[in-house]
Amino acid sequence: MTEILSLRQLNRATLARQMLLAREAVPVPEAVERLGGLQAQEPKPPFFGLWSRLEGFRTEDLHGAVHDRSVVRATFLRGTLHLTSAADYVALRTTLQPMLDGALKVLGDRAAGLDRPAVLEAARRHLREGPRTFNELRALLQEDFPEVNDRALGYAVRMWLPLTMVPTDDRWAFPRTASFTLADTWLDAPASDVPDDEALALRYLAAFGPATAADAQTWSGMAACGEALERLRPRLRTFQDERGRELFDLPEAPRPHEDVPAPARFLPEFDNLVLAHADRQRIISNAHRPQLTTKNLRVRAVFLWDGFAAGLWELERKRKTATLRLRPFASLPREAVKALTAEGESLLRFAEPDATDQQIDVVSPT
């Protein structure tokens, strides 16, 4: 008989793999792999995401990893910018190409005139001359292809060509407008030319399992995840959730008891923990999920209490005062406020070390 996993069991299993039951002392590249990558639409959130998960994490730890090229920031899962290990990027970038090709559908009529071989050759030529911002690259490509929409040219190159962002000495390792370079040049290795959707599925389960095929597809953007899991079935364990859906998992992956304590934690904007499943109730309730995303598709920062998203948070800096503002979804018990305050004070010291006044503001739910 198939074992049924409760919602809390799924929660604790996912938290264990995401290093959110206890901070762990592992190098940044290993952590990024184990976490299944970190969404990095903006440069700052991954620093906060690693701070919440790694023992003794310092900003210079991630700086070092992107500068020594063991971690890269590049278009990856779901066609969005991610931090991923160089090893995973080389191994899996080609696997994701069908999804990246499909993303061009959003261009509609603007894609008229795009000649893939010609555009790629021109982009490579310009990038061999040195790193370019996309504003610079679009302008050069527009000169090469004046009849093609400049935004379509830039977007196509992002999706078609393996590129990495070039880090700087900025506080969060990348400026607001970063330069891109050819990935094979940056990493001194070409992306594997052999797709490996099974390796992608295994990476997902290690970071976010137990999970359904639909969950894996949501995380990766790849419609073929279910086929990969079917081929892997003899190597996996299967379970059911409380609604009878089949869950796949690695046999030896951690699945703690549902009563294992989960500490207060702060997750940054765009954190994959709240994005990596089709059914996200293991982390955030359906009732609260609409509050997670803004109208312009920003994914808000959340805090966890007893393992589940219990509210939103934001950090405000005015002169020498840094304020961490918590917006709970519902009234918090006294022990939650105490634990979140202690964790929040540590977060403020990490985020704003030069602030002379640090405050925690818990807003009453409306």
From TrEMBL:
Give the molecular function GO annotations. Answer: DNA binding
Q: Which domain of life is it from?
A: Bacteria
Entry annotated with the keyword DNA-binding: yes
Q: What are the UniProt keywords, alphabetically?
A: DNA-binding
Recorded hits in InterPro entries, A to Z, give: AlkZ-like
Could you tell me what this protein is called? Winged helix DNA-binding domain-containing protein
